[in-house]
Amino acid sequence: MLGESVLPEEFATGIADPQQEISVMLEGMGEPIDVTFRHSTACSAPFLIAVALHKGQAPTQKQLRQISLKFYERGEDRRLLGVIDLRLRQAAPFSGGELLFCAPRCVRNYCLTRLAIGAHYSRLLLKELRSAPAPGMKMSFLERRAAMVSFIRPHPTVLVSIAGEFGGNIFPMNIMGALGPGRFGFALRTDRLAGESVERVGRLVISNVPVRCAPLAYGLARNHTKESVRLEGLPFAIRPSPVFGFPIPEFTVRVREMEVERSQRIGSHKFFVARIVGDRAFSQEPSLSVIHGYYQTWRLGGRTVDMKAALLEDRLNKHGDKLFPIEPEAHPSN
After folding, report:
1. Gene3D superfamilies in the record, alphabetically (predicted)?
2. Is residue 273 domain-shared with residue 182, that is, in the same domain?
3. Would you say 171 and 223 are in contact if contact means Cβ atoms under 8 Å apart?
């Protein structure tokens, strides 16, 4: 029933940005509203999704009981791959409209057969019973399933650059999403220094990473716990960003420069809304992105050979040469 898979929660692969594989629709309010580039996860624990609506699009009290996010493939068939029924937790004015913060009410995932998904869920529940969650990251099983569906939509893994009197830092991030033209949302852990630094500086630059440089990006995850790093010690060349002059990787595919407009501590994460002041593409290379393993299985039609290759790609993207340590060359004795 599990096939090849103990599937990664976050499958690292290369996908063009902005992604063109998945449409996300807000339904239950009459005509469906395309929010593919108007939503972002706001927090993991509790799991909340922020959805940006134009003026006049706010749901009525009756509609609030039936709204949902639906994830469709963009192909001719427009197959429905996942549904998150929503429960409104909070609404706030936003860019002339409203920003809705919603929790999951019910979740359905159609990337696998009912039998296969049931087997995977059973394994995950058993794993939960045997191991304690990370501090501050306790999620209900409903919230975990909602997070899985949210990652049907490909999320780029970017490198965030900040700089100030304290120095500079560069670290990876992927809990984020566009909130309409000129606005961007992202979430950072409340128990890490990275979020505090972004809030203090009030500006940031995000750089898309070519998938060939994926291990370099993942290797900087430790920088979330640091206020600043020695930029000359980074494992790649840097250059100044076009607007702020913050240090960015020489290899960046696309760079967006932002000013923080607001932030809100929710639970495990602080959610930020930023205004984009610069957006420049440097190449057409596929960007390092993460998708859920169930969606990757659907993408590849569940073909065993392709899944094995994709699992190897995922490990190489996350760990690079550490997966295959080079044996020291043997020297003949004198």
Report:
1. Electron Transport, Fmn-binding Protein, Chain A
2. yes
3. yes
Using alpha carbons, list the distances in angstroms from residue 209 to 14, 255, 263, 289. Answer: 9, 10, 25, 9
Q: Tokens representing 272?
A: 């930020």
Domain contains 186: yes
Going 199 to 156 to 43 to 153, the CA torsion angle's sign is positive
Question: Is residue 6 in some structural domain?
Answer: no
Reported as a single tens digit per residue, the pLDDT across 207-232 is 999 999 999 999 999 999 999 999 99
Contacts of 123 (CB under 8 A, 6+ apart): 2, 6
What's the whole-number mean pLDDT along residues 22-28?
98
pLDDT of residue 322: 63
**What would the mean pLDDT of 253-264 be, rounded to a whole number?**
97
User: Which of 183, 164, 158, 173 lies closest to 269 in space, CA to CA?
Assistant: 173
Q: Tell me the whole-structure pTM to 2 decimals.
A: 0.92
Tell me the CATH number at 35. Answer: 2.30.110
Q: Evaluate if residue 118 carries a pLDDT over 50.
A: yes
Intra-chain end-to-end CA distance of the chain, in Å = 57
Q: Which residues of 19-40 are buried (b: 16+ CB within 10 A; e: fewer)?
A: bebbbbbbbbbeeebebbbbbb
Looking at 249, 270, 288, the residue that finishes a domain is: 288
User: CATH number for the domain including 246?
Assistant: 2.30.110.10
Find the domain containing 125 and state its range: 22-153
Answer whether residue 304 is part of any domain: no
User: Total structural domains in the chain?
Assistant: 2
